[in-house]
Description:
- By secondary structure, the protein is an alpha/beta fold.
- The chain has helices at 16-29, 41-45, 79-92, 103-114, 139-160, 175-184, 198-211, 227-238, 258-276, 296-301, 308-318; strands at 3-8, 33-37, 49-52, 96-101, 119-123, 162-168, 188-190, 216-221, 241-246, 282-287, 290-295.
- A 7-stranded mixed β-sheet has the order 3-2-1-4-5-10-11, sandwiched between helices.
- Helix 1 (16-29) packs parallel to helix 9 and helix 5 packs across helix 6 (175-184).
- The chain is elongated and about 70 Å long.
Amino acid sequence: MKKIGILTSGGDCSGMNAAIRAATRTALGHGVEVIGFRKGYAGLLKPDFLEMGTKEVAGILHRGGTFLQSARSEEFRTPLGREKAVRHLEEMGIGGLVIIGGDGSLNGALALHRMGVPVIGIPASIDNDIPFTDMALGVDTALNNILYAIDCIKDTASSHDRAFVIEVMGRNSGYLAATSAIASGAEYAIVPEVECDLADLCEQLRHRWEEGRSNAIIVLAEGAGKAQNIADTIKDVIGFETRVTVLGHYQRGGAPSVFDRLLGSRLGHAAVELLLAGQKGKMVGLCCNAIVPTLLETVVVSERRQQDDLHSLSLILGI
């Protein structure tokens, strides 16, 4: 293999640049050329790319997001679009791809693999909803961002005797909500995997009020309900002055944590080593602190195990 390509696709997250840097430096160390495609699969279709050397990846380790940028491509979802991407890879002499992204990106990687392109995927999703990896890129940094915001909001909640409903990302996964609730000492976490009993929640808050605890933090995963509806219910039932804070894309950005810098570096290095060893159609993930490859065909048809233990712990510690 004389030349490999790298792209980042789907939602950005901190740690992607660490993976790009490690993959590039590992390939260059083996005498392999590296091409970086801009804006994900859309970059394969134009094609839009840059030749990657040590200079191009210098100074990116500490930056959030992805310097290659990311985008979603409807054209790539079509058979003609994927054929066009493969044709461009062949014309450019690219022998393998490292694809960094979430479940949609990994599905795209599998499609290319089935068309004969050697591919290794790297999981990057702040929702931590990708199976066969304990942590995906960006999760730890997002949690630190959330914790900082909750700590600040708790000061206001206690100063004004208010309840705050804080919405975090997680359309189908409550990992961020449950984990940040535990780490911040929040009173309640509402997650998509478990139906929320608002009456029970209000009863717990009423009990706190009677004990003299006149403020509360409820962390809501975006896919588990509407924050304003929950806030209005709390106010109507128990009279708490209630506010809503939607953290939104604030969670995605910022300098990556030490954990995400190290994880991105390990995954980027491992992805290239696997490609050069002739392996393909796999995703590298973190399992019990080891980097473990799993077939993409297995990854994309599996669901990440629900974090019931984390949600239960958040409820116990929030009482």
